[in-house]
Amino acid sequence: MLLKEHLLKNLDKKLASLIFEISKMCELIRRELPYRRGKTTMKNMFGEIQLVVDEWANQFIIEELKKTGLVKTLVSEEEADIVKMSKNGIFNISLDPLDGSSNIESNNLVGTIIGIYKKDFPAPGRNQKAALYMLYGPLDTLVYATKKGVHEFLLTNEGFILIRENIKLPTKGKLYSVGGLRKDWSSGFKEFVEGVEEKGYKLRYGGSFVGDFNQILHYGGIFAYPSLVNKPEGKLRLVSESNPISFIVEQAGGRSSNGKKSILDREYKSLQQRTPTYVGNKDLIETLEKTLKQ
Ligand code: P6P
Fold first, then answer.
1. Is residue 43 very low, low, confident or very high in pLDDT (cuts 50, 70, 90)?
2. Which domains are assigned to the chain?
3. Which of 82, 115, 124, 81 is nearest to 96 (CA)?
4. At what angle do helices 52-68 and 13-23 cross, to 10 degrees?
5. pLDDT tens digit sequence for 205-246
6. How far is the centre of ligand 1, averaged over its atoms, from the C-alpha of 263 (Å)?
């Protein structure tokens, strides 16, 4: 089944149209990656040097979304303020244009992460109507989730074709994927990691949230970019990274947590808001929360 057919069968027309328009950007972004590998002199609001490709992808996606007329406002990891889009737009979008872009130099996984809301920002992640990511790897894939389920599509010469429908995390996970320096982990988190290693989980960490999470969605386990002793809120951005992925993992029967509760229920203080991010199998998240509480 082609993506457009799947969207129209399962979603209202406008949401289906928006996600289909987003999917059309995949091939165009993929084609540009080889030519935009350098650094700019600019810094984003997180103080990180913007790569040429971050800036380009951000502008490209914003312009393409404006053409749909469906988007009212947009919050991007690469924009300091909310971007006004189309006055008659009905959706509000969170965007990480190229998550893990520093991976491009080493030819590792990168991807685009999008959250789709009807409610105006600031809105907790629980209000998302849909969330999706496009992964630029050996294959180009798109995963989208609504409250009706999580589905994966593969980009072929005929367009995106459905390869997995109503995805659920495997009951028994296999992988753990953890960021941050071990010396900066809390004692509770260290204890949790030792526990999963004891249970035989394998370490897989590739340096892009979307790429690492995609492995957890396939093989089960946990991804964590934890609270650090020197950065209690961790590194990942609540709005542009953690909320969309948390929506997807919860629709796939897993859980998200900031160490205490679902990330989707985190109050939203600012665009720059970071959050400790734990996503994966329910049993692992529950064990983690208990361990951190001790
Ligand atoms: P580190 C990419 O910059 C990112 O925001 C996430 O995609 C990824 O999980 C994390 O940072 C990687 O951080 O500290 O391992 O380089």
1. confident
2. 3-164 (3.30.540.10), 175-293 (3.40.190.80)
3. 115
4. 150
5. 999 999 999 999 999 999 999 999 999 999 999 999 999 999
6. 18
Q: How far is the CA of 245 from the centre of ligand 1 (A)?
A: 14
Ligand 1 first shell, C-beta below 6 A: 99-100, 102, 179, 207-209, 225, 235-236
Q: Which amino acid is at 13?
A: K
What number does the ligand 1 atom closest to the CA of 48 have? 3
| CA dihedral (48, 270, 236, 131) positive or negative | negative
Count of Cβ atoms closer than 10 Å to residue 76 Cβ = 25
pLDDT at 44 over 80: no
Q: How far apart are CA 238 and CA 281, in angstroms?
A: 20
Query: Which among 108, 100, 130 has a CA at the least distance from the CA of 117?
Result: 130
Which pTM was predicted? Answer: 0.96
Which one of 50, 225, 237, 240 would you pick to mutate in the ligand 1 pocket, going by the greatest count of ligand atoms within 8 A of its CB? 225
